[in-house]
């Protein structure tokens, strides 16, 4: 059980969460003054469950995601948004082979359906033949901002969201067979978001819009 402690030093006043079972000290790590218990974090007081259901059932294809940490973060978000199936394609690491995926996923790999596939393009073509709509998240000259897209053309029951490699992007073969290509609007200096963050934006938009 975490607790919030605050430094009593008047020129410091550092406030931070501490697990008393791990950190036995009662002194500020910055100035050395005593710390006092100030509060208990809200998230430690129990999980809030509400009857919220996504408007669209969809699966996800990870096309050659390089980072195990990004893959684990996507697992966790996919579980949270109710993704039907997560396809790990190409070099995308799996929780069965890479401990970093397991660590970042925080157990989501045990509650989410997932499988590994060598060729993402072949898989996507097979799913399209079975009636899936293919939605690719990628910044291209022709991609549409996700918040301006009419999702009526996509299957409400069988939709496949594709996200790609952090550097190379989505395989051009996947772009060529996509029903829709969308991108997350960027108004700052950077051209794109971290792939796990971008996935989170797109996944919640797709599920609940």
Structural domain count: 2
User: Tell me, what's the shape?
Assistant: elongated
Rounded Rg: 21 Å
The number of distinct β-strands equals 10
Order of helices and strands: EEEEHEHEHEEEHEH
Give the number of helices: 5
CATH fold assignment of the largest domain = Alpha/beta knot
Overall CATH class of the largest domain: Alpha Beta
Poorly predicted regions = none
**Second CATH tier, the architecture of the largest domain:** 3-Layer(aba) Sandwich
Give the termini separation: 36 Å
Largest sheet: 7 strands, parallel
- Tell me what portion of residues adopts beta-strand conformation: 15-25%
The secondary structure category is alpha/beta
**Strand arrangement across the biggest beta sheet:** 6-5-4-9-7-10-8
Estimate the helix proportion, in percent: 10-25%
Task: Return the average pLDDT rounded to an integer.
Answer: 90
The CATH H-level superfamily of the largest domain is SPOUT methyltransferase, trefoil knot domain
Q: Can you put this structure into words, describing what you see?
A:
By secondary structure, the chain is an alpha/beta fold. It has two domains: 3-45; 58-208, Alpha/beta knot (3-Layer(aba) Sandwich). 24% of the residues lie in helices and 22% in strands. It has five helices and ten strands; from the N terminus they run ββββαβαβαβββαβα. The strands form two sheets. It has a seven-stranded parallel beta sheet. A three-stranded antiparallel beta sheet has the order 2-1-3, with no helix packed on it. Helix 2 links the parallel strand 5 (86-89) and strand 6 (114-117). The two termini are 36 Å apart. The mean pLDDT is 90.
